[in-house]
Amino acid sequence: MQITTEIFGNVLVAHTPDELTDDTSDDFVNSLSDAINQQHYQVVLQMDRSEVLDSAGLTALLDLQDLTREKGGNLKISGLEEPGKKILEMTRLDQRIDIFDSVIEAVASFQ
Q1: 34-74 residue pLDDT tens
Q2: 60-89 burial, b if ≥16 CB within 10 A, otherwise e?
Q3: Per-residue pLDDT, 38
Q4: DSSP classification of residue 38
Q5: What is the DSSP letter of 77?
Q6: Fewer C-beta neighbours within 10 Å, C or N terminus of the chain?
Q7: Domains identified in the chain, total number
Q8: Rounded to whole angstroms, how far apart are CA atoms 55 and 58?
Q9: What residues make up the domain containing 87?
Q10: Is the CB of residue 28 less than 8 Å from the CB of residue 63?
Q11: What CATH number corresponds to the domain at position 61?
């Protein structure tokens, strides 16, 4: 899986796939794990394109957050549309992962 990423200072911004599901979540986590292990511990997931999010996708988000925190960093989400926000709210993941409207706000929150 090819993940589009950008670096802003010491923050890695990764664009999530259209579907973060059982079919894509393992590849997504593996791709980002490589980047995190290469010292990109501050990560923003730009989720504006993600239209489908299932339990495997939620687990992937938590796995990535755990990995970044183990390295002394953190994971934040930006651009999540209403259905995704509702899912994170219902599962209370919005209380574990910081969610921002824009990638600029999310990147700035690391300063």
Answers
A1: 888 888 899 999 999 888 899 999 999 999 999 999 999 99
A2: bbebbbebbeeeebbbbbbbbeeebeebbe
A3: 85
A4: T
A5: E
A6: C
A7: 1
A8: 5
A9: 5-108
A10: no
A11: 3.30.750.24
**Region for residue 19 given its phi and psi (left: phi exceeds 0; alpha: psi -120 to 50; beta: otherwise):** beta
Please state whether beta strands 74-78 and 98-100 pair in parallel, antiparallel, or not at all (unpaired): parallel
Residue 52 and residue 18: Cα distance in Å, rounded? 7
> What kind and span of H or E run contains 62?
helix 55-70
Give the pLDDT of residue 99.
Answer: 96
In SS3 terms, 80-98 reads as CCHHHHHHHHHCCHHHCCE
CB 28 within 8 A of CB 14: no
Place of tokens 């990560």: 43
Of the candidates 59, 56, 61, the one whose C-alpha atom is nearest the C-alpha of residue 16 is 61
